[in-house]
Each structure stands twice: as structure tokens, then as C-alpha cells.
Amino acid sequence: MTSQSQGIQHLLQAEKRAKDKLEEAKKRKGKRLRQAKEEAIAEIDHYRLQREKEFRNKQTNVMGSQGNLSAKIEEQTTETIRNLTSSYHKNMESMMKKLLSTIYDINPEVHPNFRYAV
Question: How far is 102 from 96, CA to CA, in rounded Å?
Fold first, then answer.
């Protein structure tokens, strides 16, 4: 009987060691999975930052050229307004004189188609 109980005891110890090894393997696997997940997240973050940086550079290039175009148009507009204002002030007096002289210079004449009613 003692040999049987020793055999059973030996089997129970072997089963316990196997169970411990399985648990340890599961822990190592879980640890490796967590580590792989953390590495993947870090790699994804690095890739995302790199792509966002490239996007911002491209956006700056496109928007920068549009910004320059906008500034150029604004400058041309202010130049045109300045020229028109200058021209207005320069020619206003002479045009007012011409307009008033045309209005005041009235020559009353009888229209050629007018018939006297006798």
C-alpha cells in the first residue's frame, strides 16, 4: 500500500508541478502579449506623429502659398483704391466746373419744329 500511496503522492506532485508550469507559461504569455501591445501602441503613436508632421508641412506649403496670394490680392486692392481716390480728388474740381458751366450756359432758342399758331 505504501508503494501505491507513494505512487499516488508522486503523481499528485507531478500534476502540481505541471499545473505550476502551465500557470507560469500563461503568465509569461500574458506578459509577452502586454509587452507586444505596448510596443505596437508606441509604434502606432510614432507613425501617427510622423504622418501628422508630414501633413502639417504639406498644409503649410499649400496654405502658405494661398496666404501669400491673399496678401498679394489685398495689396493690389488697396493700391487700386488709393489710385481711384487720388484720381477722384485730382479731377473732382475740374469735372464740377464743367458740369456747372454746362448747366448754367443756357441759350433759349425756339425749336425748329415749333409752329406758331396764328
Answer: 10
